[in-house]
Each structure stands twice: as C-alpha cells, then as structure tokens.
Amino acid sequence: MLTERQQEILKLIITTYVNGAEPIASASLSEKLKEKVSSATIRNEFAALEDAGYIYQPHTSAGRIPTRLAYQFFIDNYLDKNKEVNQNILKKIEKILGGESDTRLRLKNSAKLLAELSGQAVVVAFEENDNYYTGLSNLFSQPEFSERNIIVSLTSVIDHLDKVMEDLMNKTRAEIEILLAESNPFGRDCSAVIGNYKIKEFSGLIAIVGPTRMDYQQNYILIKEIIKLLK
Question: Distance (Å, rounded) from C-alpha 43 to C-alpha 26?
Fold first, then answer.
C-alpha cells in the first residue's frame, strides 16, 4: 500500500515522463511536491517505489522511469472518466463531424483528427475486415519505437490488422477500455484506448494506439467525446 506522499511522487513521475520522455531524477521533483521534504527523503521514496515495482532505473546514474504497473496504478486511481475536453478541441471535433454527411468519411476524418490531437496512431473498424488506420508516422517518431525489434513487432500486427480488429470487435465492452502490455493485441510494447461507436448503419470501434508512455487522461476523453458526437 503506497503512502500519500509516495502516490504524489509516483503521479508526478508519470506525468513528467509522459510529457518529456526523459528519466526523472529525484532532485527535479523537490519543487513540485506539496510537502517540502529533503532530497534524501525523496530518494528514499524513490527506492521504496522501485522495490514495489512502480519505477525502474534504465541505466546507472539515470533517473527513474514508470513501469507498466505504475501506468495501471494511474489509470485505476487518477483517470477522471467525467473530465471534458477543452472548448478549443471541442470546436475542432464539432467542425469535423458537422461538415460531412457521408458516414465513412466522417469516421475517417474523425480518425485523422484524433491522430492529430493525440499524437498517436488511430484505427477505426467499420465492421469486421473493413478497417482504416492513420497516424503511423506519429508512432514511429516516438523514442520508444527507435528499436528495430519493436518496429518489426508492430508492423507484424499491422499486417494482421483484420484479425486483431475482428477479435476486438467480437468483444463486448460497456465503456471505453484501456489495454496495456500483454493484454493489448496491438503489441506488448504499446497501449490502446478503445471505444465502441454506433452511427446510422455503422457500428464498430475506434482505438488510439501508442506507446505505454501515453497521456491516458487526454486520450480517454478524446475517444469519449468523438463517440458521443458521432451518434
């Protein structure tokens, strides 16, 4: 069980790493904590979080990086499912969805906008074996995908996208779902935020796919808003 201070530190590590993709040093958090504590205390808390499996040190003398367990902790404890997108983003979404009557084009335009707003890849399933994806360049520009084996793994998934999407389509979900690591069919090095939509004659799913280091809060509310306005 994490203490209140450990939870605050872990949340700061996650949000800082999501934004900067650089390991977090204990000294860099001292000014951000609500409670003013010594650097030694923060280092002790880092050690406790590392022992508990929430952070790790990628190499000697580096700062710490969140683990998949840390991201799951964030999703379970800090994700605000009722949060709304800001007005500027809402206007962009409404403009895209209101400017086209053809349903397939509306969905494709929505996917392109989601890719732009999230900075990730987006996949839309219109029905089984009828899929559209965009934003792959967003994925491959992320530092996590600089390793060849990860790129090969992801492109292999894309080659079998019909089967991946068919499996996801056949799964009933009452709300937006977040899949990490081994539970994510797009690959254990990725995460996905997935929601079902229904619009006129179309029913399917839409997914934001990115590295485990993604902004789950933002991507959740983006998917939620798109699905709501598609109806």
Answer: 6
Q: Indicate the SS3 state at residue 137.
A: helix
Distances (CA, A) of 124 to 11, 46, 143, 183, 209: 31, 40, 25, 19, 11
pLDDT per residue over 28-57, tens digit each?
888 788 888 888 899 999 999 999 999 999
Which tokens hold the place of 120?
A: 């990730």
Predicted confidence (pLDDT) per residue in 159-182, tens digit: 888 889 999 988 878 899 999 988
pTM of the entire structure? 0.92
DSSP codes of every residue in 56-91: E-SSTT--BEE-HHHHHHHHHHH--TT----HHHHH
Answer for the pair 222, 110: CB distance below 8 angstroms, yes or no.
Answer: no
Q: Smallest Cα–Cα separation from 140: which of 113, 117, 158, 126?
A: 158
Element (H, E) at 180: strand 177-180
Residues 139-174 as b/e (b if ≥16 CB within 10 A, e otherwise) read beebebbeeeebeebbeebbeebeebbeebbeeeee
Instruction: Tell me if 173 sits within 8 A of 125, measured CB to CB.
Output: no
CA distance linking residue 67 with residue 51, whole number of Å:
12
A 10 A CB-CB count for 27 gives 11
